[in-house]
Write a structure and sequence with these properties.
- This protein has two domains: 6-129, Rhodanese-like domain (Oxidized Rhodanese, domain 1, 3-Layer(aba) Sandwich), CATH 3.40.250.10; 154-269, Rhodanese-like domain (Oxidized Rhodanese, domain 1, 3-Layer(aba) Sandwich), CATH 3.40.250.10.
- The chain is built from ten helices and ten strands.
- It has helices spanning 9-14, 35-42, 73-83, 102-111, 123-129, 157-163, 177-181, 215-226, 244-253, 265-269; strands at 6-7, 21-25, 49-50, 90-94, 117-120, 154-155, 170-173, 198-199, 234-237, 260-262.
- The strands form two sheets. Strands 1-5-4-2-3 form a five-stranded parallel β-sheet. A five-stranded parallel β-sheet has the order 6-10-9-7-8.
Length: 279
Amino acid sequence: MSYTTLVDVATLQAHLDDPDWLVVDVRHQLADTAYGERVYAVSHIPGAVFLHCDRDLSGPMTGCNGRHPLPDPEKLAQRLGEIGIGATTQVVVYDDAQGMIAGRLWWLLRWLGHDRVALLDGGLQAWQTAGGTLTGVLPTLAPRAFVPLRRDGLVDAAFVLESIETPHMHLVDARGPDRFRGENETIDPVGGHIPGAVNRFFKDNLLPDGRFKPAAELRAEWLGILAGSPADLVVHQCGSGVSACVNMVAMEIAGLPGSRLYAGSWSEWCADPGRPVER
């Protein structure tokens, strides 16, 4: 059996010694980019490999392509193979930020054709609450061949601009409601949102303990957000193409597959003063 959205703590505990399973730790903080490596070195789920949000899951910034541009797919594929992900590997990814960073790796793997990837439901906090062990011992890597089969799950700024307020796109912004409104913007130089976008804060997909809401509840909520639009017309964005991926996970859980990502998101959009802004 393969897992494509979520894995619970008990299931992961039962597979910790399974050679076809690989756990990936992607803890990260925007204000302290060394945080993830630092806490991983102290303690992590046994066998977990660390990937860095900026170095591994993102590409170089140019000043106009957003804060977390997508990595080069061939370089990413090489890195994924180096840490031990092959065609049959079940990947389980976790963070301690309510899935915000874990969702990014989930989407990247699916973008490159690897469906056997799931978030640890509830993240590291759920693991610790259940009494899961932690270790500081670094795992021995067992490299495998990762062959990318790139999929068409992306849109760019030009597509978003030409599709604004048309029936060809239903744009969903995953940022917090205040940033969506253009208030309390402390990360990007311009406050506001892309005209026509609707707001679905990524944390609204979660229960108070950080686990995802049940599928039926998510489906009812997302059908309300979609307002009759089919899932394949939905385009997700956030500040930099990271937390938006949590909304994509939620739609998959809800049985609403096929949405796409505007990876540049608000940080790319607002870098061009010629693009419209709504507040």
